Recover the amino acids of this structure.
């Protein structure tokens, strides 16, 4: 009977990596949504109207308005943009003190509720929806660069020792294969993440994945150029130190992780993945434990939460879980003041350009030339 119980436990362990992540997709494995996704999801390509003003206090303001019927009742779908915040939601027509069939009266009432001076005016440039979509897409990043460092026994606080690791252990190689595909950099024609794909100046290989329509290039410490005469390993730190999220792979049972091990102004989130270097017994499966640490400036926790689970067997589910954690870590880090200020400056300039063109068109009827400014995603 005891032998039967042991066999049953082993079978249960072997079945764990086969768990399906489909059952978790609607909750714990959701990506953090951007407020910038609302316009494309609810307005773009549908009948709606864009109103604008240059408010005395708020500066550039844009209101997108759409009429719809929910549960046989009239509603207005409203998206209000300012430089520093966005409001989005639905308003029952019955709550607005204006004729629901008089759109201009509705907008005048909304201007008064929001205390906008001067009041909102209808934008009539046909290019406005496309320009608003371009504005939003700047902040919806589909290309990420993520650091990966390799930590051995006793290296928890030594940046020089960690970045001095130049060879992969079999366990680290196995983990990298879980993250993505090993690619040759020379001639690589997808997202490069700042790596050189012409002269091999940043190494010859890297790890890359296309996942949920997001391209991720991993800056792997052991794959970046290793200069023996440079104790600070600046060639490696130049890339990893300018990432926002870093994955720390710890091949040790008792080595602690210290987020100050890599000194960086940009790194805001570390995801530490630990596995034991001890050889696996027959039938035993590779197991990983995960922890996460963020700077205080990152203003909220992000899914999937470690309180729900922090230990995993090697499996497709663990890969999905880890990539969600990485991408959500990046998105949550944008809430830090350093990145929020950068986004506000970019949003302010672009919103101001759109509203200036709308105002000029309202007065002169002139169609502006297409934007030639080369805006790039932040981070």
């Amino acid at each position: 009977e005891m032998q039967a119980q042991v066999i049953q436990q082993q079978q249960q362990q072997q079945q764990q990596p086969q768990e399906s992540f489909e059952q978790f997709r609607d909750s714990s494995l959701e990506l953090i949504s951007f407020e910038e996704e609302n316009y494309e999801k609810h307005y773009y390509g549908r009948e709606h109207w864009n109103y604008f003003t240059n408010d005395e206090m708020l500066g550039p303001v844009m209101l997108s308005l759409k009429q719809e019927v929910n549960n046989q009742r009239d509603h207005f779908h409203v998206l209000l943009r300012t430089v520093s915040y966005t409001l989005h939601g639905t308003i029952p027509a019955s709550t607005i003190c204006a004729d629901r069939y008089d759109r201009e009266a509705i907008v005048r009432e909304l201007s008064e509720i929001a205390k906008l001076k001067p009041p909102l005016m209808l934008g009539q440039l046909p290019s406005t929806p496309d320009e608003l979509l371009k504005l939003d897409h700047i902040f919806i990043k589909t290309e990420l660069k993520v650091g990966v460092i390799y930590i051995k026994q006793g290296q928890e606080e030594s940046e020089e020792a960690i970045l001095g690791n130049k060879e992969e252990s079999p366990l680290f190689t196995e983990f990298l294969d879980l993250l993505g595909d090993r690619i040759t950099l020379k001639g690589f024609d997808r997202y490069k993440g700042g790596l050189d794909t012409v002269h091999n100046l940043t190494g010859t290989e890297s790890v890359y994945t296309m996942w949920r329509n997001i391209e991720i290039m991993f800056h792997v410490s052991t794959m970046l150029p290793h200069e023996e005469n440079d104790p600070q390993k600046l060639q490696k730190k130049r890339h990893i130190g300018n990432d926002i999220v870093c994955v720390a792979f710890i091949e040790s049972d008792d080595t602690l992780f210290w987020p100050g091990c890599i000194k960086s102004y940009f790194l805001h989130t570390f995801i530490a993945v630990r596995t034991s270097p001890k050889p696996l017994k027959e039938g035993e499966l590779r197991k990983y434990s995960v922890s996460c640490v963020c700077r205080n400036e990152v203003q909220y926790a992000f899914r999937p939460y470690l309180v729900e689970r922090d230990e995993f067997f090697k499996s497709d589910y663990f890969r999905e879980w880890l990539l969600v954690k990485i991408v959500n870590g990046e998105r949550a880090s944008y809430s830090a003041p350093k990145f929020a200020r950068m986004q506000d400056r970019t949003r302010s300039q672009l919103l101001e350009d759109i509203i200036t063109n709308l105002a000029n068109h309202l007065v002169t009827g002139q169609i502006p030339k297409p934007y030639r400014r080369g805006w790039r995603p932040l981070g």
Remarks:
- The radius of gyration is 26 Å.
- Residues 143-335 form a domain with the Rossmann fold fold (CATH 3.40.50.11210).
- The CA atoms of residues 350 and 373 lie 10 Å apart.
